[in-house]
TrEMBL record:
Residues 620-831 form the Histidine kinase domain. Residues 829-852 are annotated as: Disordered. One of its GO terms (molecular function) is ATP binding. This is histidine kinase. Residues 842-852 have a biased composition (Basic and acidic residues). It is an enzyme of class 2 (transferase). GO terms for cellular component: cytoplasm; plasma membrane. Keywords: ATP-binding, Kinase, Membrane, Nucleotide-binding, Phosphoprotein, Transferase, Transmembrane, Transmembrane helix, Two-component regulatory system.
């Protein structure tokens, strides 16, 4: 089934007549015999709108109850069953009542369109999602009901329903929009002339952009290459030089003279990437053009005039702004220049403005000493061969007659050797010197700088030309080799950098240190500030004495966005290095953002864990602590009551209940305090050496007698622990084991030495714990299985593991052979147990220290 078509009536504000226009369109279609129904239209009590509904079939609304009131929403299922050719759906951005088929009305419309039903709808400009902030800044009202821009842009037809602010306010005053009791408030607030004018401008500009998109699509579909001057579009050609700022400002002034003018700055980059403008200057110009409301573009092309004209015609530009050439007068022998070529080839439909500036005829500042890239030693050898080689060859050729042709080939070989070694300049010197020697020694008349035979003149000229050509080719190949090697090095650096950054292996300080090492700088720093006038702060640094106050104080600074810059000190970098440095700066900003996001995630995780602990703590306080308190309160109240004469046995029983409740409270509060200390990291164990058999028995005081079987040999090595923490850990483990052990089955507490560790095992014969839950039982506020609330707050095992880890030990859970659970507390042994002394003797302090 073909998808239905969507037609939207767009207005600047309520009351401009969108719904009226939609109903008028419906009447016209019905008169033409189209099956058209009203799926949903909001009249808002406006008489003229209600009159327009007469004669149109309306699909009954679906009634929904929400918060004690009944609302009518579009019945999508009924419309789909009716299957009309056209459905009218008012207020596209409306939010449906909870319980509807879809959350938003535009989603209902999407279902109708998917079913092949054409839809006519309405929407105001303030309901477009992308304009929410702009509308709020104009009207002071945040629109809660919005529709995605893409939904409106996909419409097959968009018609603007326009009305001047004065006419709209008159309609409001006449009561044609709102009820009379709301008119004064509306005219004084939302419907102020300034608000309506701004909203109208937004609507006109949005529709103009939509029309422009239609026009570009039409021109592309029909391959229209000529420029249609329907709107002033000014293209600014940038070279990366300082004159670009002047050109951008000049183009902006030209655009402001026409309605809806647009400025597009474009920089043409070489396709081989071997030449590039200053990244810093281009970044400044990009920021400038964007601040002035224009756009920045970078186009790849080797033929700058052709690429610039293709771009201008592609965007349907009407004017091109170029700067006067910076070339010196003698450089025009190589061609007319970009400006003259663009003006010549622009045609009658594209105006070209040549703007003067301060850099006219000052040259481009290109490096002249290209041979320096070959290395000092090669250049010296090149000059030596280029100057001494022809002289030595002339001396040798004077001893033998090989003919002028062979002599010229030999001199040409010397010129090629000079080019291979030293580049262009030594080769040119060799060709010139060799030509003079050929003329003086081997061309009649001999020993004179004249040539009698014209053929010899041609031969010497060809020799000099071939020498120059060979030298140029060799020099070009050497420079290209150098550039290719440099680009390969740059690509390897960037690839390594990007890989490390994406994998998260590089911190900001490590990245800045790599920047400093790569470019041989003394220091590197990433500076940022909150606003245009806010002071700069250092987000990260590397090296000694990095600039911390302003990026301008550094030898090299690369902007990253509007409020961040990479600053380096040590030396001034050439433009070729700045290209790679710009990539480093962008990656530094990414690393900083990732670090901050990670810190925020860690803080959020800590807060979430803290909230979970606090929630469980509140639950424990509200329930688990209340039970013993209630028991104590009841026992005390009973004892103090004068109405009952309690026997000694009853009094003893009540006092025993009070004591048990107090012990239980003491245990619960102790665990809560211990858990709080572990969570805040304030547990500081006092490690000392002690026997296990001295601590473990003390931990059994809180369990019933005959419930624990103890097997702790006295020959075990001493352990390095905090006795208090060890006692609390073992006490919690034993209490937990006794709680889950069957009646009549005792818990075994055994200790043994394994290598350099001492293990304390608490073995029960209870129900056991599955493997997948063995780690979870050590989390705070966890109870296994169907343990009742009164069994504790679920902190015992968490506190035991926390104390064990604080002492450098471990606590794990294992299955008990034959059923049950075994807790294994592994502790670090202090050393071998000292040999016992004969009765009546004791060691001195130095002997004890030496023994231990």
């Amino acid at each position: 089934m073909a998808r239905g078509k969507l037609r939207i009536y767009l207005g600047a504000a309520p009351g401009v007549g969108k719904t009226y226009a939609m109903l008028s369109e419906a009447h016209r279609r019905v008169e033409r015999g189209t099956d058209c129904v009203v799926a949903l239209v909001e009249s808002h009590g406006r008489p003229r709108t209600e009159v327009m509904l007469h004669g149109l079939e309306q699909v009954p609304r679906r009634q929904l109850e929400y918060r004690g009131a009944v609302f009518g929403e579009m019945d999508v299922e009924a419309v789909l069953r009716r299957a009309p050719a056209v459905a009218l759906v008012d207020e596209l951005a409306h939010t449906n009542i909870p319980g509807s088929r879809n959350t938003k009305r535009w989603q209902d419309v999407e279902e109708l369109l998917a079913a092949g039903i054409d839809v006519v709808s309405t929407v105001n400009i303030q309901h477009l999602e992308s304009l929410g902030d702009v509308v709020e800044s104009i009207t002071g009202v945040r629109q809660r009901e919005t529709v995605p821009d893409e939904v409106v842009r996909r419409a097959d037809d968009i018609e603007l329903v326009d009305m001047s602010p004065q006419a709209l306010r008159r309609r409001m005053a006449h009561g044609n929009i709102y009820q009379p009791d709301k008119v004064d408030a509306a005219l004084s607030n939302y419907f102020r002339p300034g608000n309506l004018t701004a909203l109208r401008e937004l609507a006109l500009l949005w529709v103009a952009d939509r029309v422009d998109a239609y026009l570009n699509a039409y021109r592309s579909e029909h391959r229209v290459s000529t420029i249609w001057g329907s709107r002033e579009r000014i293209v600014v050609g940038l070279t990366g030089g300082p004159e670009g700022r002047t050109l951008i400002r000049r183009a902006t002034r030209l655009a402001e003279k026409g309605a809806g003018g647009e400025v597009m700055a474009v920089y043409i980059a070489r396709s081989d990437g071997l030449s590039s403008a200053s990244p810093k200057e281009l970044a400044i110009q990009r920021t400038l053009v964007e601040d002035l409301g224009g756009t920045f573009h970078q186009v790849v092309g080797d033929d700058v005039p052709a690429a610039l004209l293709d771009f201008a015609r592609g965007v349907n530009a009407t004017q091109i702004v170029l700067g006067s050439s910076r070339r010196k007068a003698w450089q025009y022998v190589f061609g007319p220049g970009v400006g003259a070529t663009v003006a010549r080839d622009s045609g009658p439909d594209l105006d070209v403005h040549i703007v003067t500036h301060e850099e006219v005829a000052k040259g481009r500042g290109l490096p002249v000493a290209r041979g320096g890239r070959l290395g000092r030693a090669r250049i010296i050898w090149g000059w030596a061969v280029g100057l001494a080689g022809p002289a030595v060859l002339a001396v040798l050729l004077n001893t033998v007659d090989l003919g002028l042709a062979n002599d010229m080939l030999l001199f040409l070989a010397v010129t090629v050797a000079a080019a291979l070694l030293g580049g262009l300049l030594p080769a040119l010197a060799s060709a010139a010197f060799g030509s003079l020697l050929l003329n003086y020694f081997y061309t009649p008349p001999l020993h004179r700088l004249t040539v009698a035979d014209p053929k010899n003149i041609v031969a010497i000229a060809i020799f000099f030309g071939v020498g120059m050509a060979v030298a140029s080719v060799v020099d070009l190949a050497a420079r290209r080799t150098h550039q290719a090697a440099r680009l390969r090095a740059e690509s390897e650096i960037l690839s390594f950098l990007a890989g490390n950054v994406l994998r998260g292996e590089t911190s900001l300080e490590e990245l800045l240190e790599r920047v400093r090492e790569t470019f041989a700088m003394e220091s590197a720093a990433l500076l940022e500030r909150a606003g245009d006038v806010a002071p700069w702060t250092c987000a990260g640094r590397a090296g000694f004495g990095p600039p911390l106050e302003r990026p301008e104080d550094a030898d090299v600074d690369v902007p990253v966005g509007d409020h961040m810059a990479l600053a380096l000190s040590g030396r001034v970098l050439p433009a070729a290095d700045r290209r790679v440095l710009a990539a480093f700066a962008a990656q530094a900003a990414v690393v900083l953002d990732r670090r901050r996001l990670k810190e925020e995630a860690d803080r959020a995780r800590t807060l979430a864990e803290g909230n979970r602990i606090r929630t469980a703590l509140l639950a424990a306080v509200s329930h688990d602590l209340r039970t013993p308190l209630a028991g104590i309160k009841a026992a005390v109240s009973s004892l103090r009551s004068d109405d009952v004469a309690w026997s000694e046995e009853d009094q003893a029983e009540l006092l025993e209940g009070i004591e048990e409740g107090a012990d239980r409270l003491d245990h619960l509060v102790g665990n809560l305090l211990d858990m709080s200390r572990l969570q805040t990291g304030t547990v500081t164990p006092l490690i000392r050496e002690i026997d296990v058999d001295e601590v473990v028995p003390m931990a059994l005081g809180g369990v019933p007698e005959d419930s624990v079987e103890l097997d702790v040999p006295e020959t075990l090595p001493m352990v390095a622990v905090d006795p208090g923490l060890l006692e609390r850990s073992v006490a919690n483990l034993v209490e937990n084991a006794v709680k889950y052990s069957p009646h009549g089955r005792r818990v075994l507490v055994a200790a043994s030495a394994i290598a350099d560790r001492v293990e304390v095992r608490v073995v029960d014969r209870g129900p056991g714990v599955p493997d997948e839950a063995k780690d979870r039982i050590f989390e705070p506020f966890q109870r296994y299985g169907d343990a009742p609330r009164g069994a504790g707050v679920g902190l015992g095992l968490a506190v035991a593991r926390g104390f064990a880890e604080a002492m450098g030990g471990t606590l794990t859970a294992e299955d008990t052979p034959g059923g049950g659970l075994t807790m294994v507390l592994s502790l670090r042994a202090a050393g071998p147990r000292p040999e016992p002394l004969p009765a009546g003797e004791s060691r001195t302090e130095p002997e004890r220290q030496a023994t231990w």
